[in-house]
Design goal:
About 40% of the residues lie in helices and about 15% in strands. By secondary structure, it is α/β, with parallel strands linked by helices.
Length: about 150
């Protein structure tokens, strides 16, 4: 949602995929995450996907970007992003950050929520790109691997 809207605003959009995130363990490999994005964004001619392991402002500089676009879903996203913006402005005052509010139909979607739904056999195809939904069905083929063995638990 945010990437598609950014592609309508800017001549060129580079989507950065964190190579080795320090603050969380991704469910999917780096190669899978890149492939998911490339498949989902293949219709957007002005969008590229690249991997980075440096600070986001250094990644922006590498691509000679003047703007970092971030999506916001809820107020807690803003609190975190506000802090990151202040740090980024200190490190790279020439790089602006623009915030795009997620569309209402996806503003409630989070990776942890999608993982929970998939683990209990729920449909995630309306929440994530097709390639991601297919991968979840491969990971959880029996439908309800998260159900306790003893329902009283």
């Amino acid at each position: 949602d945010v990437i598609a809207r950014a592609s309508g605003i800017f001549d060129r959009v580079v989507v950065g995929v964190v190579g080795n995130p320090h603050h969380k363990q991704p469910m999917f490999s780096l190669d899978e995450r890149v492939a998911f994005l490339r498949e989902a964004l293949h219709d957007l001619d002005n969008v590229e996907v690249d991997v980075f392991s440096e600070l986001v402002v250094d990644f922006a500089r590498k691509w000679e970007a003047k703007v970092i676009v971030k999506g916001l879903r809820v107020i807690s996203d803003f609190e975190w992003e506000f802090q990151m913006n202040q740090l980024n402005r200190t490190l790279a005052p020439e790089v602006e950050t623009v915030y795009v509010m997620a569309s209402p139909q996806v503003s409630f979607v989070s990776s942890s929520g999608v993982k929970e739904i998939a683990a209990f056999g729920g449909r995630v195809d309306v929440l994530v790109p097709n390639a991601v939904a297919r991968r979840f069905s491969e990971l959880f083929p029996d439908g309800r691997p998260g159900t306790p063995e003893n329902p009283a638990e």
